[in-house]
Amino acid sequence: MRAIAISTILLLGILPAAAQTATCKSQATEKKLAGAALKSFMTKCEKDSKTTCDTSATEKKLSGAARNSFTKKCVTDAVGA
């Protein structure tokens, strides 16, 4: 029964996207990156996150301040605090 409930929650997207995927910082830590490699990875990951968040904002038909706020929070969650 518990597995069905968890599956339903994940399928419905009730959990935030950041909880379902690893953050850029956690991925960098797993890969044990440092120095220039870390900086390069974080820059690319942040850019990719922004693109994904912009696409998501477009799908949600957000504009103006709502879009900016959504995108900022989305990127922050994806990169990791």
In short:
This protein has 81 residues and is an all-alpha fold. Helix content is 78%, strand content 0%. The protein is elongated, with a radius of gyration of 15 Å.
Q: What is the multimeric organization of the chains shown? A: single chain
Q: Distance N terminus to C terminus?
A: 34 Å
Overall form: elongated
**Strand proportion:** under 5%
H-E order: HHHHH
Word description of this protein:
With 81 residues, the chain is an all-alpha fold. It has one domain. α4 runs antiparallel to α5.
Helix and strand layout, with pairings?
Elements: H1 2-12, H2 17-20, H3 24-30, H4 35-59, H5 64-79
Helix pairs in contact: 4-5
Observed structural traits:
mainly alpha; 5 helices; 0% strand; 81 residues; elongated
